[in-house]
Amino acid sequence: MIPRTKTNYIVIHCSATRADQHINTDDIRRWHMNDNGWSDIGYHWVIERDGSVQQGRDVDVQGAHVRGHNHESVGICMVGGMAENGEPEDNFTSEQWLALEMLIESLELRYPEVQVVGHYFFTPYKTCPNFIVEDWLESIQ
Question: N or C terminus of the chain: which is more exposed, having fewer CB within 10 Å?
Fold first, then answer.
């Protein structure tokens, strides 16, 4: 595993799963390792539907969550983000929102110059994490 050299970004993702799917960090880790052939889960943190924050990759190790920027970013995945019809949907729970806010605050203390962005910031054709991160950040200030 390659050490992460710096931290310029916190990138928020979603798992692109329906609200009623019982997905956890181990499921995502299995997808990344078995389907993608990676050495571990691509994200550093996963926020499950009940608001529990689970560690993925060690935060000092380069993630696998945003092509071209893994060396300078920490990845957080919110479980959910897809409607029943397969379309993007902001369907996250109040517990997840609270957990995300607390996790971001703690990471900003560790990395004071960091910019918090959605995956779409680097990959504009994606809607991930299926909410506008800038609007959410403004709403919690």
Answer: C
Q: Which helix (H) or strand (E) holds 1?
A: none
Q: Is 50 helix (H, G, I), strand (E, B) or coil?
A: coil
- 9-140: which CATH architecture? 3-Layer(aba) Sandwich (3.40)
State if pTM tops 0.90: yes
Q: Are 11 and 76 in contact, with CB atoms under 8 Å apart? A: yes
Note the pLDDT tens digit of each residue in 67-106.
Answer: 999 999 999 999 999 999 999 999 999 999 999 999 999 9
**Of residues 102, 44, 100, the one with CA closest to residue 72:** 44
Give the C-alpha separation, 131 to 137, whole Å. Answer: 11
| Domain spans, the chain | 9-140
d(CA 25, CA 44): 11
Catalytic residues: 13, 43, 119, 126, 128
Placement of tokens 């571990």 in the chain: 40
Answer for the pair 35, 74: CB distance below 8 angstroms, yes or no.
no
